[in-house]
């Protein structure tokens, strides 16, 4: 078996087998068929990626078809949002189609089924129908209207169509087998009366086809070769095939190819709700500001939060195509957007929790415009000028009056480097009546060649621009908020999912446009929100530089034995990941990295430096060392000759994972 064949996913294997068995390549057709009853979410991106990805791979058309058969829940707003989302992800559809395009054809075929004794009008109540349908272990029984004459069924069905009956009075059912082991085959409903306005057909119809009847026949009309759907539709495949085979006898001259349904595991994401019904509840109860709230897992919410199309496509590629359901750690999605933005987002300086610093030996009326690199990952990004003056803001957490050897930031008597500027030394503090530090008085040194361990970001007070920063966190505090029996998923809402901050940013950001993305140095990635104006900047936090949820493991069952606390030094725990780190699957590696990032907070530079000389063969250890080093640098450690050499050597390595980690620190 060739390497190329091995790398195919199971759907591609099916397609390759069909091509080998005589299916012409130009007959390949795919589709993405959303129901326009809500906004698309991250779970849909897998289905989108699979269908459009196959279209690209095989140079085959992909239709965007809206399965719009329920006017009670569907709206044009959702159609427009879906089209915008698919286009934003970078996919182009061949045809924009609607199941409502086929209402007349579906009706005509239903009439033909009635004439052939394969469909009938049932007039039972929904409760009576449910009772006579049986259970998974108990066969159903024939209803009292199952053997109506063809003439009566045709008359009733036409009168249903003409609006002569109220909703719920009659339905049309397929006549299959009430004792069938698959309950979906026990005379499924094909049509129900719905006197609702349809967003495309208006009030033309009083009856609407059910999903199982519409979906497969729409595939058939469009001559879709491979109908791909998620695993919950696997039990429906038998019904899909039954309907398809009946209709084939009526239309094989016009539509010679019968589509093939195949199922893949849907995308389940930790700390996330994937039900459109439950997402709608969040919107309707104003838990969020709308479908595009940046905390929502909708594509529009992710876009507004600052996620990029490329990061989402990379995420889908890493998740892969599987046959079994599993839950993907949301940390993998966050990793993908960090990786993408690291390459493209300009670096700027912003202070979210300001502490005033006065540089006492800097002239009162002096100001300088210093050169700052826009993005070390992009040589073409160039440089910008940032202003410097006597008074600046730094983050409050970047100063302590007294601190230990692992604190690489500013402390009394200690020195740090200001990013793109000078070295300062803290001399004394000014406090208010409650003892809170309000100012730090420092002196500066123009000798920037001195070796110091810490580097801080800052903003000149004189030139600082006020901005609103919206820090978003995960909307739910539980890994699986809708999986707890007897509990409402709303019970697991994170009360701190939004934190609004009045921050200060460097003046270059006054020119920032809505949607533009930046790395606030040492803080994370942010983008300009839709609410932003030139005189009132608003930034959304996309993701932090590190995973702050790494150690928030799910609570243990009280009946289970508690795990013993691991008392090994943090660096030894980190080293234990080295042997197999680069051979782990993507989602397992994301979890391992999250744990390393948390452990690294308790590691000193003296712990890490001996690992710089690790053999090139031990790539896993070098990678985990690079990750740990990144945490120290983020916390203010100054680069030295040994660090630069370690990073530069890694950049020339053949191991892709090592190079990627090194690029983030270069």
TrEMBL record:
Gene Ontology BP terms: glutaminyl-tRNA aminoacylation; glutamyl-tRNA aminoacylation
tRNA synthetases class I (E and Q) anti-codon binding domain mapped to chain residues: 455-529
InterPro entries: aa-tRNA-synth_I_CS (IPR001412), Gln-tRNA-synth (IPR004514), Gln/Glu-tRNA_Ligase (IPR050132), Gln_tRNA_ligase_bac (IPR022861), Glu/Gln-tRNA-synth_Ib_cat-dom (IPR020058), Glu/Gln-tRNA-synth_Ib_codon-bd (IPR020059), Glu_tRNA_lig_a-bdl (IPR020061), Rbsml_bL25/Gln-tRNA_synth_N (IPR020056)
Residues annotated as binding ATP: 35-37, 266-267, 274-276
Gene Ontology CC terms, in alphabetical order: cytosol
Biased composition (Low complexity): 550-564
One of the record's GO molecular function terms: ATP binding
Catalytic reactions on record: tRNA(Gln) + L-glutamine + ATP = L-glutaminyl-tRNA(Gln) + AMP + diphosphate
Positions occupied by motif 'HIGH' region: 34-44
Residue numbers covered by motif 'KMSKS' region: 273-277
All residue ranges annotated as the Glutamyl/glutaminyl-tRNA synthetase class Ib catalytic domain in the record: 27-342
Record's keyword terms, sorted: Aminoacyl-tRNA synthetase, ATP-binding, Cytoplasm, Ligase, Nucleotide-binding, Protein biosynthesis
Entry annotated with the keyword Chloroplast: no
Domain of life: Bacteria
Residue ranges annotated for the Glutamyl/glutaminyl-tRNA synthetase class Ib anti-codon binding domain, each copy included: 345-445
Complex formation: Monomer.
Protein name: Glutamine--tRNA ligase
Taxon lineage: Bacteria, Pseudomonadati, Bacteroidota, Flavobacteriia, Flavobacteriales
